[in-house]
Amino acid sequence: NEWTRELRYQPYDSWHTDYTQQLKNTVKKAPWRLDYHVQPNTGLLNDPNGFSYFNNKWHLFYQYYPFGPVHGLKSWYHLTSDNLIDWVNEGVAIEPTNQFDSHGVYSGTALPIDDSLFLAYSGNVRDENWQRKSYQLGAKMSKEGHMQKLEHPLIDFPIKGYTDHVRDPQIIPYEEGYLMILGAQDTNEKGQVILFQSENLTNWEFIGNLDYADEEMGFMVECPNLLFIEEKPLLIFCPQGLNKNVLPYDNIYPNTYILGSDFDLKTVTIKDATPLQQLDYGFDVYATQAFTNNNNRHLSVSWVGLPEVDYPSFKDGWAHCLSLVKELTIRNGKLHQFPIAETKELRQDKQLIEGTLSSENQILTQPKNNSYELNLSFDANSSGVIHLMRDESLDKSFKLTFDTKLGKLIVDRGQVGVPFAEAFGTTRELELTKYSSLELDIFVDQSIIEIFVNKGSEVITSRVFPNSNQTNLKIEGQGGSYFGTMYSLRKMK
Ligand code: FRU
């Protein structure tokens, strides 16, 4: 069937249970379903929302369209966890119901306030001419899980100086009150990050455009996150239509960050900001959400999927997943992202891997299936290829080519199962420090590969859709030796 606008915006309760049951069955039988990543039961998942710790549990929500692998009428789907690894599906938590969010409960964040979890999100509304209106809204979730939308918008539409593209509120405690950080498009059609301030979460005062870069940030900024790590401001965001002279990138839209030395609210400035950098060097990361919990842990999770790109799983009625939960730290003045220590809970049997790089090298330990963790270290003078998801007879694989002398790392997903998004290229390249040893922590889960380079100094995330016989592992190369460990990983409980 064709996903007309009418169909995509049909109310949830108008879908027949025969249809939804059939969709569930199709997805249950689908290949490429993940073992330990958050994925939708049916339909489409996009941005992580409301990542928080409240009432002795971790809470995570995501943008959800239940009825097919398309961007339709969005709601927030709710998950809870005791350990940030095993997530319990709690169902749809915020649905579009009223004049402020009738055409989508869009992205936002959550903050525990007194006895409830305060949720801030964008309400997407279309009028009869399909003209957009965008409200910034609030809701409160009680300890028992009861959700109550606030009666009045936190921020009304329109905002002077900006178009109808204003969304994705992040609320953070700041001094005695709160800041709201929003992605926006100004009336000159430039992407901006804008700030509001409030003492009580009810009345919000406009502060202005955040000054964090000399360059223009395309035509729109989505999903901004402002964090303070060791008092240094970190801004993670998604500029759309960014000029490739500002930052070379191949994905349709990049997820990026800058790190500053100081934040000044009076001048609305992040001082001494680094040049814009890619948050992820792979093919699929977008809309990363990060927050600081009350133990001062900085955690993030990304949508692994991109807007306006088709993925092979669409044919089975589901789309996209979330990344592993990552811990953010600053080391040697640089942002590092690494899977949280709790990820070790997934480990099953351990096997040591050791060898000398040569052209015949065949790794002796073969993974049982595409669900494992592989930690590898290479000498400063080595080069080679790690083949993941290799097909024994045809030698097709996901290739990770490295050369520590030249300081290069290239990933190639062009030879894995069902090709997709080829218009954006099938390889990605990362520059490394020349003549340095290389450490890789690789997480493989059926249709996703997350590669953490040098303990999270860089991350390379890729969706891949292998054929069923692509489960082998091979390492080949020259110069020096390698050693490491491989763990098979269990399924999410
Ligand atoms: C980013 C985004 C957000 C929006 C949401 C809608 O992927 O476009 O800007 O709030 O998705 O699902």
UniProtKB/TrEMBL annotation:
Entry-linked PROSITE patterns: GLYCOSYL_HYDROL_F32
Subcellular location: Cytoplasm
Keywords, ordered alphabetically: Carbohydrate metabolism, Cytoplasm, Glycosidase, Hydrolase
One biological process term in Gene Ontology: sucrose metabolic process
Residues in Glycosyl hydrolase family 32 N-terminal domain copies: 37-339
GO molecular function: beta-fructofuranosidase activity
EC top class named in words: hydrolase
Xref: Pfam families: Glyco_hydro_32C (PF08244), Glyco_hydro_32N (PF00251)
Protein name, entry field: Sucrose-6-phosphate hydrolase
Taxonomic source organism: Vagococcus hydrophili
